[in-house]
Amino acid sequence: MSARKFAAATPGFNERMNRLHDTFRELGFWTGVLYALARLLKVCGLHLYCYRFVAQPVQPRPRRELRSSGTRIAAAASLAELPHPRPRPDVVLTRRFANGATCIAATRGGLLSGFLWYQCGAYDEDEVRARYCLGSNQMAWDFDVFVQPPLRSGLTFGRLWEEAHRQLDAAGVRWTCSRISPFNPASMRSHARLGARSIGSAAFLCAGRLQVMAATLPPYVHFSLSSPVELHFDASLLTQEPSCATSSC
Fold it and tell me: Secondary structure of the chain: what % helix, strand, coil (to 5)?
């Protein structure tokens, strides 16, 4: 059967091929291959997580007075100070507070508009068994930046980051680190605009209890049935890496 006849006999074939072509064009060939492999493995009951680790400079700005917005940006010290609708289970949020994480929350009319979290010292990854250890008190780990869908085209996202940078700067933090997915080009571009620098990458293959990691950071390769792998990030790396760009980060 010719390719043309096969396409005609398979509903949606051309549409799927066009989506695949667009994916490879946006992600690049090798990242596109990893994305396709992750999708295939998921069908087989396996999970492939690919991360790129970046650090962006803390750059505080003067607080903006937005009288008409009605949105309040402030740190929440406990679950009781975090109003609904909460996008994460209460048990997850409670554990974050217990681990010493800081939550910057945006509220409006008594409802949660969004939040941003950061933690100093070390952060335990929530998707795989990994602990990210920061080698300097001038570094912090930011994670789970969330804005309610109806508000994502507004100023909430930017105001959360501004408040986080003010607090981090006051605490003497100069770099905030995070992990992003290479399969999310919008996030890659957003971090690049913020001056993010690449500080490593890692891939985790999970099959039941077995976890296999390959990374550009020590220990480079790790096998585990229960214990987490520790990845250490040194502030000195930030003087050795070029700025993160969507084409090479």
Answer: 35, 35, 35
